[in-house]
């Protein structure tokens, strides 16, 4: 660590360290679940109790994703000078992650991938209809399409926030681009990224062979409500 | 093990221990065969000689599936207090498994997954026609569709039992939900889960490119009969 | 080895041992290339210099495929009593392998799988057209369909032999059943099984999105001729 | 090394050794990314500072790809006599690689595969339209089709060079054959091979389910320009 490394209170430093470890490890889940190729895809996690988040460096191999290589950023998406990893550039999607953290205080994690079937729906600008119970559980309805926006300003972040604010879904398919997912923490956002590809693939194949049977709205509501409140080992099980 | 841990006769305890080990290990087969993502999917096994079965805890990672974390339940699906693993909640599908064990005494194992192609047929409510010899061997005819039913009461368990009772198939596709399979033991039910996804995928691709040739009923009958009686190393080889 | 174990001349015994090792190891290639699930699929190899071949036991897990578990058979498909592995039953497809060895003396290996895309073409009874150069290299033309035949007599073996005799292709898709491949040895037949699934999948996707461009017959002939004679490290490189 | 092994200046020898190691290792990326089966596919790399390149031997298993087995060739595609590996024949595609190195001095790496979806587009002779932002980033527009050409003379190499000269894309789909990719070095060409299969697959699925939304040319231009100049850790990050 360089001489100008920032000093944080011990509890904040511990939270930073935990977030670095989580974010580094969770990139492995993107690979294990077949969501990314080469250096594509990125996971970030908000540091609990601080206006900071941790994200992957740009264009770096998945084999090099050690906790100390992750990049600590402020909520404007600027790398904190002197912190471990700061000699590298953060992911080129950092501005979009930062926008989400600034405008959605309840969000603790953000994930972006170019997973095959989610991108296929995005290329058509077509939302994924909610026709299987696992999708009702997890997303509470269709997966919405976000606006077409390209890198370089706030438009991707704004499109994510506008689409997901007040929506049950933790996933948005940005048109012609791909999925962004949010969660209570980085692990929850990774789970959403895994599940959105799973439902994108399943519903693709389902529709390809004939008409699908709609799920009644009342059933969707009951499934979503139950899953948010009951499933797993405790109230925070979705994480 | 806590003080209020139940005491069983040595042979029953040995059967419980073997079932815990089998059920824990067989979840690995779901992963290895690409049938599940994240914490989805569950395997259970009846304890031979007792009114008990063993099932996976709810919402727990596939890396944490040690035998001692499996949950021992009575045939109402209630975790046995004090038994190893009982500090966790059993799978949210436990009620459906329990219903099957109560109403189909010949069943020794139950599996549920959201495997891609099986769910795709389920989303259309369309049974899988028997057009390949491997499917005649294993299932003796088409894979049937079960009713639409959602979690919260006996309706899933009842739908499974009503569809599979007297049917050759060990697999049912619950409409808009996914496959449940049964077997003489947990391994046999896992094999059925692997094979139902395999035939769901193969027949999907077959039909996608043009009409398939039906199998004569007489050939289906001969193949099914032979496979149940001859195949493998002994009469119980299907396990 | 039991007391009634057969005695062979040392060179034959050495050839048996090598064939056992090859056949055991090559089953791993079926798994690695995604051609089989559960215990499906089988590889056999003729013992050079003897009227014998080695095949996998029936219904046995891919984790148990050690050389000493492989079964030594005569050309009628009967396990040699007392030889290692003979306490088990040979693969239920042994009669078909034996028929091929009896009627095609140039064949040194046979493979059968239920690989997804090859079975999909078989379920439609549709030969795979030769529209990619890799397929011209390897098979010299279309992959033919064999007759519908079910297990229990010589009809599968006869269908394979009648379809492949005098044909360039080392693979046949038995209608409603799946691919059988032959080769100069077991490895060559496994390569054909890998390649037939590869071309079945590629041509499936190619045609799904629009008309494919036919390959001129003259180009197919030149590619096949060159590949049989030049490719690889020596005249027997295809093995 | 044999007595007639060539002698190079130490810096050239070091560059040869590094290129051998890179080319050997990068073949593993073809396997890891599911681009090749059996012995198919080949990677080559130009030796910086010399009229030499390194390529894989013909028909050799991916398990045998040690650096010393790679073959050193001059720019006519002739193996350098006496160099390590020269007892084997170079890949049957060596002439095409050599042609590219002779005619495109800026190219430092060439890759050829038969990856499924890229070959599927090639079999229809249909370029892949640029409808997703990741494709604009990486290729700057559609992936073009090259002419039908078969092995045996310069026609494959000439087709690659004529199609890619002055084109933004580093990938060409040779009609009825498959993808060839180029790059500033072997790693860059492998990345292009991975990405071309990724976009071939994604756009296949996207179009299969309905019309895709075109990307505005202005957006493609901005994305391509930014990615070439900004992305990654430095100006040469694309490598």
UniProtKB/TrEMBL annotation, chains A, B, C, D:
It catalyses: L-ribulose 5-phosphate = D-xylulose 5-phosphate. Its cofactor is Zn(2+). It comes from the Bacteria. It is an enzyme of class 5 (isomerase). Residues 21-204 form the Class II aldolase/adducin N-terminal domain. Gene3D superfamilies: Class II aldolase/adducin N-terminal domain. Pfam families: Aldolase_II. Keywords: Metal-binding, Zinc. Signal peptide: none annotated. SMART domains: Aldolase_II. Its EC number is 5.1.3.4. Belongs to the aldolase class II family. AraD/FucA subfamily. This is L-ribulose-5-phosphate 4-epimerase. It comes from Microbacterium galbinum.
């Amino acid at each position: 660590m360089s001489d100008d490394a920032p000093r944080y209170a011990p509890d904040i430093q511990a939270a930073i360290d935990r977030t670095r470890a989580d974010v580094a490890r969770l990139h492995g889940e993107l690979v294990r679940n077949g969501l990314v190729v080469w250096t594509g895809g990125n996971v970030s996690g908000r540091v609990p109790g601080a206006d900071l988040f941790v994200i992957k460096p740009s264009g770096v191999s998945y084999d090099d994703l050690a906790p100390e290589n992750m990049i600590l950023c402020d909520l404007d998406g600027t790398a904190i000078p002197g912190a471990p990893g700061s000699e590298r550039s953060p992911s080129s999607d950092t501005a979009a992650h930062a926008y989400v953290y600034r405008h959605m205080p309840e969000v603790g994690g953000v994930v972006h991938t170019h997973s095959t079937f989610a991108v296929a729906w995005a290329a058509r600008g077509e939302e994924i209809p909610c026709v299987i119970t696992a999708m009702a559980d997890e997303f509470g309805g269709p997966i919405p399409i976000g606006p077409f926006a390209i890198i370089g300003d706030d438009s991707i972040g704004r499109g994510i926030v506008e689409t997901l604010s007040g929506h049950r879904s933790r996933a948005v398919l940005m048109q012609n681009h791909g999925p962004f997912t949010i969660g209570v923490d980085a692990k929850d956002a990774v789970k959403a990224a895994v599940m959105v590809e799973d439902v994108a693939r399943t519903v693709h194949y389902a529709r390809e062979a004939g008409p699908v049977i709609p799920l009644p709205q009342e059933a969707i509501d009951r499934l979503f409500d139950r899953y948010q409140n009951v499933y797993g080992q405790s109230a925070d099980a979705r994480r």
